[in-house]
Amino acid sequence: MENIRLNVALLRRRVPNLTSAARSVGLRPATVSNLCTGKIPVGRAEVKTLVSLASLAECSLDDLIIRGEKIEMVETGIKTLDLFAPLAKGGTIGLVARPGMGQLVVLAETLNQLKQNGYTTVLLQPEGEYPELQDLLEDMDTVVHTIDEAYDLLAKTGKDKDIAFAADRSHVVTGEILSLQERLQDIGVDSVTTFLVDLKGEAVDEDLPYGPLETLWHFDADLAARYKYPAVNPLYSTSSVLEGAHLDQNHLTIQQKAQKLLRRYRELRSIVSVSGEDRLPAAEVQTYKRGERLETYLTQPFHVAEAFTGQKGHSVSLQDTLEDVRKIMDGNTDSIDIKDLTFIGKLS
């Protein structure tokens, strides 16, 4: 099948307030978001949807749809991210979470991994007091305070090195991030991978809190409440890298089977939480047990949190993650106690 995807960068430039614009032409913002991240393949989109998006961006369908260009995945060493919502190199990644769900820890671990791979890390300091940013600030290569300062640094450094650039949603709302990305594109700098966080926790209530994204990491209140960290929702998080032509078929197959198992596990868990495991249909007990083991395996100790948890951090290669998840779904860990799968790296 021809490798096609939406030109997210073009949408971001041409339609800053995509939520309102989409509604104005009868499009569901969630549909637009899923098309941007690749959760809905462009090949399955209705023609009228693509025509409406092209109209909003004031471009042709040929401009809106990119053909034959592969999106490069960057491994983070974080099992649940690499499996369900891979990092798109040079793209824009949005973290959607309320305070206390661990988004800054996930961001810090991701940036730490990218630094190990030669990236330069840059943070645009948000206005206001955010004590929770202190640990992140200490680990950044550079902290800038204005968009112009960010532009000067990224324009110079981005010609020779890959950059991981982080900013708060407050800079998105003002339009500063959009302006920055346009200016960098104008001079041909495409080596900047942008991470957007929401320190106030308002993004959870928005359909498209950051505009078009290549990758969405959606955090889950239930996982956080049960201390299943990183509390990234494996069903709502997604990435344009997941489009079939961009991803290894083995990865795609395991990812889809894992999502199916976790989706059913969550349904069964609601029964167990009310009535106990004894009320599960006999045919569903195995599904419940394996879903529980998979969810537990996806917890992970982070290097950046070692001083707080006293537990050694682990990075897990994508290949190891895929192999481990396959083993869990095939029943190879059915006899392993749940506690032995909690906050580990790869399977022993």
From TrEMBL:
Homology family: Belongs to the ATPase alpha/beta chains family.
InterPro entries in the cross-refs: ATP-synt_VA_C (IPR055190), ATPase_a/bsu_AS (IPR020003), ATPase_alpha/beta_chains (IPR050053), ATPase_F1/V1_b/a_C (IPR024034), P-loop_NTPase (IPR027417)
Short name of one Pfam family: ATP-synt_VA_C
Protein name listed in UniProt: ATP synthase A/B type C-terminal domain-containing protein
Compartment list: Membrane
Keywords: ATP synthesis, ATP-binding, CF(1), Ion transport, Membrane, Nucleotide-binding, Translocase, Transport
Domain ATP synthase A/B type C-terminal as annotated: residue spans: 246-324
PROSITE patterns: ATPASE_ALPHA_BETA
Main location: membrane
PANTHER family referenced in this protein's UniProt entry, alphabetically: ATP SYNTHASE (PTHR15184), ATP SYNTHASE SUBUNIT BETA, MITOCHONDRIAL (PTHR15184:SF71)
